[in-house]
Design brief:
3-stranded mixed β-sheet, 3-stranded antiparallel β-sheet, alpha+beta, about 40% helix
């Protein structure tokens, strides 16, 4: 699966932090894999509703209703402006609102004449993933990920000064990360099991 993210498995549950998670990867997680994934997209945190009424209106605040059409937060219909079909089969549709000029929310919504949003045909998988993450079960499961993974990443960055890969190419990057993990494990063995090891010599 493509994307800038690393999945950690707890049993049949795949947990990760995604910096850039393509729709293709989300689709495969839901349709081709047996594991139960809990992976936020890069806009997941900012997509959560804010109590600040002056915040900019985000694209995920536009509502897809039962009639299959999108409406803006001020209940205005979004018209289809352009449809793009890609080689892999996915489609993106650009919607435009035709009633922005006199809209009371225009200052928060757009600086242009009309607000547009782009919807990927794989958007349904992003919405499903967000619903899972926001559920009680999703919150409980993802908290485990934060405890298990974040501690290691924090140690790498703050204590060891390793903030990025220095080697290029997937095979070399994988080897570099493997060496880093071996070093971390050896450090733990020396810290917590050194007496037992010395007793065996």
């Amino acid at each position: 699966m493509k994307g800038n993210f690393h999945v950690r498995f707890l049993g049949e549950q795949g947990l990760a932090t995604a910096l850039c998670l393509p729709g293709e990867s989300l689709e495969k997680m839901e349709t081709e894999r047996n594991e139960d994934f809990y992976v936020p997209d890069r806009l997941f945190d900012s997509s959560k509703k804010s109590d600040n009424k002056d915040d900019k209106i985000k694209s995920d605040q536009f509502e897809l209703r039962e009639d299959g059409r999108y409406y803006c937060p001020n209940d205005k219909l979004m018209e289809v402006k352009q449809v793009n079909t890609f080689e892999d089969g996915h489609i993106t549709t650009i919607y435009e609102c035709m009633e922005c000029t006199a809209c009371s929310l225009k200052k928060r919504c757009t600086k242009g004449k009309a607000r547009t949003i782009t919807i990927d045909s794989r958007e349904v998988y992003r919405r499903l993933m967000r619903e899972k993450l926001l559920s009680d079960k999703g919150r409980e499961i993802y908290m485990k990920r934060q405890y298990i993974v974040e501690v290691g990443h924090g140690n790498d960055q703050k204590n060891k000064g390793w903030k990025q890969h220095y080697l290029r190419g997937l095979p070399k990057a994988e080897l570099e990360f493997l060496l880093l993990r071996i070093g971390s494990n050896l450090s733990k063995i020396i810290t917590y099991r050194s007496k037992e090891i010395l007793a065996m010599v």
